[in-house]
Amino acid sequence: MNRRPVALFAFLGLGYAFLYGPILSVIFYSFNENRLVTVWSGFSTKWYGELFRNERMIDAAITSLKIAAMSATGAVVLGTLAGYCLARMPSFWGRTLFAGLVSAPLVMPEVITGLASLLLFVGLEQMVGWPNGRGVDTITIAHITFTLSFVAVIVQARLKDMDQSIEEAAMDLGARPWQVFYLITLPLILPALVSGWLLAFTISLDDLVITSFVSGPGSSTLPMMIFSKVRLGVSPEINALATLIVGIVTTGILISGLLMFRQNREKERAAREAAGG
């Protein structure tokens, strides 16, 4: 008997248990009747009811979703333009500097980014009177600043792998550059745009450090709310909230996997029909 696969599966099982064991414990204790999260006293769903009756938590969740959606949309627009310039304009004045500025948020510590954003907003407020304090607008701008880098990298990679002969053929047939981009390039890079939007949305929704620097009264996001509550001790409501988030993410992953599986099956079926025909 070969012991190598057994040891491999054992280490793999330990790794998965280390990663997902705490998540399963959070889900398990979200149904605990006791207020003490580590003391099981019976099955109950009352903490889910308490969660939905917590208006501050609901307002923070709505604010986070709103900021994440606006940040992801802005990051896709600016990141697509930046990625297109880097992929299709191999030489222009200041390209090296521009590429460095685009990729800088990827390696810059979030504390530095948050502090720089705060100083920028304070300086603008003193000079031009905008922004009037910190809130949703400043959080959104700060999130766009560092999430557009992720979108630019994804779009740039997709454009480099794309066959440019299709665009060249369209231009030879008389299409203008904006028509080529809108009718050919944009549909071909659409999966990259969707991936970039989802990644930017997730990063913005999850951010805590930068948001703490550029937020103000009345603009607390869900990560800030959770962090402030956890500092005083984990409550069963936090477990219930984490369980809902895990459920939503898992459902999205399952739906995405199912759609990809069906799409691959349709491609295989079309390939077999083409080969048989």
From TrEMBL:
It is a multi-pass membrane protein. Keywords: Cell membrane, Membrane, Transmembrane, Transmembrane helix, Transport. Gene3D superfamilies: MetI-like. GO terms for cellular component: plasma membrane. GO terms for biological process: transmembrane transport. Its main location: membrane. It is found in: Cell membrane. CDD domains: TM_PBP2. The chain crosses the membrane at residues 7-31, 67-86, 98-121, 141-159, 180-203, 238-261. It holds the Pfam family BPD_transp_1. The keyword Cell membrane applies. InterPro entries: Bact_Polyamine_Transport, MetI-like, MetI-like_sf. Residues 61-259 form the ABC transmembrane type-1 domain. Belongs to the binding-protein-dependent transport system permease family. CysTW subfamily. This is Spermidine/putrescine ABC transporter permease. It comes from Elstera litoralis.
